[in-house]
Amino acid sequence: MTTRRTSINVLALLTLGVGLFAGCGGGGGGGSTPPAGGGPQSTPTAPTQPVAISILFPAVTAGAARRPAYAPSTSVTLTVAVNNAAADTYDVSPTSTSCQLVSGGRSCTFTVNAPVGSDTFALTIWDAPNATGNKLATGSATQTIVAGTANTLTIPLNAVVAKIVLTLANPNPPQGTATSIPLTVAVSDADGNPISTCGGCVAGANQYANPITLTDSDSTYTKISVNGGSGSVVNATTDAVSVAYNGGNLSSAQLSATATAINAAPVSVTQATLTPYGSIVMSPSSVAFTSTGASPQTVQASQAGYSGALSANFASCSSIASVNQVGTGTNPLTLSVAPVGAGTCSVTISGGFSKTATLTITVTTTTITVQ
Q1: pLDDT per position as a tens digit, 118-173
Q2: How many other β-carbons are positioned within 10 Å of the β-carbon of residue 169?
Q3: Could you say which architecture CATH assigns to the domain 280-363?
Q4: 3-state DSSP helix/strand/coil percent for the chain, to nearest 5?
């Protein structure tokens, strides 16, 4: 019987799709014929099926408007293990004699032997020779390989998370208004290749090899939500993450993430900070004097959630009151107000996020005429 070599086609996007087509087993079914007379029998050897592996690493074009979802063009080694046996190692670097440049990237082809029967295939992509350096993607699947039948198996290779960057769509919502804020979880591998959604891939192809757990320093005013639920674990690039803010008097909330390090270096994380802003609060919001000889009064202005300086415009009050800053602080901002002449004027306090507040100053004088 002629043994037919079948093939695996692998597309290195976010994950890798693998197709196995197994034909007849080698060696006429394998094993040996028991001798006559009931003598000792040898253990039959399971027939194997030679399998061709074809893998495409898409090229990343500089300046392209859209990069492939996950393109490990920095891949150097592919390892394939069948049924937990020692993995075979294949060179997938640009200089490999098993690879050639094709439209859209480089294609590499190899052959492995898979026993007929139930097989577990495990694949790993590395960024250095001889399965060293960093793992870029891993994946496995189990399939029953039947001799003489076309068998198809898809193995999604899951990207290995090495770097996480969290970004809030609006890090400064207004206090007093409940809102849900999208949180972007941008992920890349150890070589800086961005990991994003592969829309045309099989189910499970967008999973991470090492899922991400999100954390929140606040437990009173904010709550993380993954896919509309109460969970905090991001398993795939397709997971939608948001932060619910109840509008309360929150100073700030630090959002962070963790993921199990598959490579030697720890997973790098860039945190996001939620800092709701409030209105400018005046204390008091107005001052009044009954004579120009009255003692000065102190006013303080502050704005929660704003790290910049507050400023005061009191040009219109020059003939009514003397307004001066006390100390060097600008948020809160402390002002000293002393009466100068009769009348009413306003001091405008300006802060962050286009917020303003008004301090009203009234000076009343009484004139007694004796005739």
Answers
A1: 989 898 999 999 999 999 998 888 888 877 766 666 677 789 999 999 999 999 99
A2: 12
A3: Sandwich (2.60)
A4: 0, 50, 50
